[in-house]
Write a sequence for this structure.
């Protein structure tokens, strides 16, 4: 029977130390509180005393590979209290080396956000299912390969989920978001600068001639263009270029400073809106990737 989910306090850190086999040598009071054991009950016990059955074996396999190799690792972990309640944490575990050998291992855990928990819970659930009919090595290889195909290492996946800001997956969409934004800012500056210098022979490149415009053209028919935000991206992009053209036209005809100022502001606003829509789209795509990981694993299970 599934117990209740416990919420870790904002400032609480759950600490434990073990030997190289994972036998508990130290646990702080916060650890004891969430594990539901007295300190004396924990000392000398194997660390899997708090293991939750919803945790995939593959994660612990990777965990031990890394730690025994002298490397640190971050992991999202669901742990079980003695009475069946459970709690989610992000743990940082690091080995302490002595004469080139791991002598003991330290672990620090903090609470995670609901978003992180929802994402990782789905992945773990499906890995656990997969492990019912596959070896732990197959399960780990599957996870690692699946992420690799999407330009993500395990560590990058953890990083993406770790900060409570938007989780983006621009790499997998091959979108150089920052670069495209930079291009548009520079281009606007370039145009206004030329106008200010009194140049009259300014040509404004068409949307298809900018790097992002080329990307937009090449994206035609791709899956992510079916996302509702894509229409906005496309529209704002056309508006930005249209307004740049207008800026030049106004400058050359009347040089109406007030009008120029307001067009400039509109270009800034549209650029911002364009990249905001793009970010929304990328965020949803990230969710879809995690969703499809679950789907693919289910098909194999
Ligand atoms: C320092 C350290 C901290 C650990 N922390 C946890 C933990 O919080 N939860 C957990 O289930 N396993 C933790 N483990 C891993 C356990 O030793 C064990 O590998 C895991 O619970 C899987 O158990 P199993 O091999 O019986 O399936 C930790 C290991 C070490 C060395």
């Amino acid at each position: 029977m599934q117990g209740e989910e416990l919420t870790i306090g904002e400032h609480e850190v759950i600490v434990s130390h073990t030997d190289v086999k994972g036998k508990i040598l130290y646990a702080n009071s916060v650890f004891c509180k969430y594990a539901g054991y007295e300190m004396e009950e924990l000392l000398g016990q194997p660390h899997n005393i708090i293991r939750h059955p919803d945790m995939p074996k593959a994660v612990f396999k990777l965990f031990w590979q890394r730690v025994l190799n002298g490397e640190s690792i971050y992991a999202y972990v669901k742990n079980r209290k003695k009475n069946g309640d459970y709690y989610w944490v992000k743990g940082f575990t690091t080995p302490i080396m002595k004469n080139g050998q791991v002598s003991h291992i330290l672990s620090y855990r903090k609470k995670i956000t609901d978003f992180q928990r929802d994402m990782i819970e789905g992945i773990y659930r499906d890995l656990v299912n997969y492990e019912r009919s596959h070896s732990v090595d197959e399960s780990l290889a599957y996870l690692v390969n699946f992420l690799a195909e999407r330009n993500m290492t395990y560590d990058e996946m953890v990083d993406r989920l770790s900060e409570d800001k938007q989780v983006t997956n621009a790499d997998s969409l091959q979108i150089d978001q920052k670069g495209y934004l930079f291009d548009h800012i520079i281009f606007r500056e370039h145009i206004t600068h030329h106008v200010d210098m009194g140049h009259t022979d300014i040509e404004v490149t068409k949307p298809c001639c900018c790097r992002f415009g080329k990307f937009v053209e090449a994206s035609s028919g791709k899956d992510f263009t079916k996302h509702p935000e894509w229409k906005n991206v496309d529209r704002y992009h056309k508006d930005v270029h249209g307004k740049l053209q207008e800026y030049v036209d106004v400058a050359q005809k009347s040089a109406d400073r007030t009008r120029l100022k307001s067009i400039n502001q509109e270009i800034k606003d549209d650029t911002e809106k364009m990249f905001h829509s793009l970010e929304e789209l990328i965020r949803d795509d990230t969710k879809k990737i995690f969703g499809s990981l679950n789907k693919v694993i289910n098909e194999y299970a």
In short: The domain at 170-300 is CATH 1.20.120.30 (Four Helix Bundle (Hemerythrin (Met), subunit A)). Confidence is low (pLDDT under 50) at residues 164-172. The first helix runs from residue 29 to 35. DSSP finds eleven helices and five strands in the chain.
